[in-house]
Every structure is written in C-alpha cells, then in structure tokens.
Amino acid sequence: MILLLITDLExxxxxxxxxxxxxxxxxxxxxxxxACLGGRGPVADQIEVGGVPVHVLGACCAADIxxxxxxxxxxxxxxxxxxxxxxxxxxxxxxxxxxxxxGVRLIQSIQTTQPKPRWHWWAQSVxxxxxxxxxxxxxxxxxxxxxxxxxxxxxxxxxxxxxDIDAFAPSPSPGTPGEVSGIGDCPRAGWVGGIQAGxxxxxxxxxxxxxxIGDLIxxxxxxxxxxxxxxxxxxxxxxxxxxxxxxxxxxxxVTLHGRxxxxxxxxxxMDCLVLPSDAEGFGLVLIEAMAAGIPVVATDAPGIRNVVxxxxxxxxxxxxxxxxxxxxIATLASDxxxxxxxxxxxxxxxxxxxxxxxxxxxxRQLLEGH
Length: 370
Hints:
This protein is an alpha/beta fold. Helices cover 38% and strands 16% of the residues. The protein has two domains: 2-162 and 355-367, Glycogen Phosphorylase B (Rossmann fold), CATH 3.40.50; 165-353, Rossmann fold. It has helices at 13-27, 42-49, 66-78, 88-97, 118-127, 139-149, 213-219, 238-247, 263-267, 284-291, 322-334, 336-353, 356-367; strands spanning 2-6, 32-36, 54-56, 82-86, 105-109, 133-136, 156-158, 180-181, 195-196, 200-204, 228-232, 254-258, 272-275, 296-299, 315-317. The protein has a seven-stranded parallel sheet with strand order 3-2-1-4-5-6-7, with helices on both faces. A six-stranded parallel sheet has the order 12-11-10-13-14-15, sandwiched between helices.
C-alpha cells in the first residue's frame, strides 16, 4: 500500500498534484491513501470523492511534534510499504516516522525553488539522507536540491507536473482583435502606445510574498483604464494587496475574488494569465492556462523558465519589474497574431510535455521500484 503525505490540502499547486496522482493511481488499481499533517482542507473532499481515503493528522502548527507520533501510528496500523511525501515539513515527518524501519520505502518530493525560509532547506538536507529517491518537477528544482541540500544527482528524478488537457476547454477567441487606443489617460505609461483596451488580466494562486503580486498591481498603473486585473486566491498577502489597490486608486480596475475551487472558473475571467513570481518549482497554473488557450506572461524565474519558452509558448520578463510586465501585457493586447501563435504553440507544448499519461507512467515506475 502507498501513502501520499503532504503538509496541507488547501487549494494550491502541490495539493492539486497529490489529488490527481492519488485518484489516477486508484483508477489503475493501485492501493493508495493520502494523509496531511495539518487540518482538513477542501482538496481532501475532492480526493475522497475519487475513492481515496484521507487521513488528517491535525498538527496545530509547524512545531507540533505530536504529528510525528500520529504519523508513526498510522504507518504501523496501515502497513504502508511506500511513502511518497511532498514538501519540507512532510518530508521531515516521513523520515522521522520511518526511522524505526517498519519495512517502508521512503520517497520525497521537493516542489519549490523558493530560497526562504532557509531552515526548510537545512531540514530537507537532513531528511534527504533517509530517502530512496527525490522527485522534483523541473530541472530548476533539481539544481537547487543539489546545491542547497547536497543531494546526490543519482537520487534525483525529474517528473514534471501534468494537466488533464480535456478538462480545460480552449478559449473561444484567443486572438480576437479589438479596438486599439492610446494611453493618454495613463500618467506613468507614456511609452506604452497603441494597445487594445478592455483586456482582462488574471492571477491565480496563493497570495504569498514569493508570488510578487504587488508587482502586477503596480503594472496596472502603466496600462490604460480599459485593462482590469482579476486576482484569484487567498493567503497571507491579502490585506497588504487590498491596501495597495486602495492606495493606488485602482479599486475600480482590480478585483480580489478570493478562493476558487476550480481553476477553469477563474480562467474564464482572463484574456491573459500573469505569474510574476520570484521563484517557482514549476508553476502548475501556467500549464492550466496554456491548456485552456489563455496566453501567459511570467517572470524569467527558476521553475517558470522550465515551463514557458519565451516568445514560443509565452512571454518572459525580468523579475521585479512592473514596467516589463505592463509592456508584455500591452504587446499581447496589441498583436492578435502573436496571441494566436503563442496560444497554439503553448497548447501543443502541453500535449507534448505535460499530460498525465506519461507522467503517471513515470510515477508508477518510481513507486514500483523500476
């Protein structure tokens, strides 16, 4: 029996990966269960609907050592032969829970290139000594796993994240031209001219400092009033972002919609998806947008650059540059032919590299010890 262990089951990229992996393994006849260290999140319900049992270990905080005891009891009771853990806290918990042996094979997954908090990487370097393999979603994560944790290259396996492309209906009019207007009413954007007004820019993800959502809000000051920004997600940055929108006088153009359980629903509100992060492990939302026929603008950051090919499947800009984000958004809006080319190439790239059939096959080979 296989246990997939994760820190939490809130809405997010890694919980989505765990959900899809668990349910798809179950459909192929694999005996699989899921456990989370924290409280019950909405993804737990989605996993159970797919017929996979979920165990909630109920840690009250990151320092709650009682969760290690609960996990150890679960491992002994259920007699798992393999644990695949995701993210630093879960990787450490799995290592501690299996120190006594119990005949359990341990595989860990690192899903981020985010440099802070540094103790995560120290903890991961310690936990990595007790694991058989380390799974990473991109070459960027493989590189930081080696440099920050000292993990041997032969322990690392790159398995990309994936998407069910049939679940994301292509945008009906990805390249439809609209009226072109100038930027006379935009005091900070004199260099951005001849752009298509009325475009809906979108962000989808956790409201976390590493995502640099404030840069995207700042980018709105370089764009005409016809551009609107729709932010989907919850997180620690919500209050700060709300205040930034108020301070910049953008309340009529920027909407924080809160959490959405289905990315397809959020993507319906977008003509362009923007991911302005400083670092990502992969950026699952990128391939969701690409599958849905939504062109993407993103930063040339670790993880992202392994997914988006500049000027082929999306546009990449330097990190921490609101002006560059605005210029790329304006370029997409003013060039329908470019939009069409990027959308078509991106959707084909998802079909070629990021669909579940080959990815699931890689996971099964890993879990079965091949």
